[in-house]
Amino acid sequence: MAHSIVKYRQPSQSVIHYNGSYHSDRYMGIIWYLNQYSPGLKISTITTVLQDDITTMKEEHRGKADFVIVVPATMTRTY
User: Fold this and answer.
1) How remote is the C-alpha of 37 from its chain's centroid?
2) Burial degree of 8 (CB within 10 A; 0-12, 13-18, 19+)
3) What single string gives the DSSP state of each residue in 21-73?
4) Per-residue pLDDT tens for 22-53?
5) Inter-residue contact 19 to 30 (CB < 8 Å)
6) Domain limits of the chain?
């Protein structure tokens, strides 16, 4: 996937790529490959985490992405 993004992206073009957390949390997966194929590429990541208490983000979730959205563990999920 990262190879295709780099291959077809035009200079100065922005790309939005949606994927599951497995592919980008902690800047691994696709993000790691993007950095290998195109060093210096500006990349921002967003992830969602579930917690019982959403008032304070758990330490284990810090650093998973540039933006971490904390939602209630009871939130309806569709897999």
Assistant:
1) 18
2) exposed
3) GGGTGGG-THHHHHHHHSTT-----EEEEEES--SS--GGGTTSSSEEEEEET
4) 999 999 999 999 999 999 999 999 999 999 99
5) yes
6) 2-72
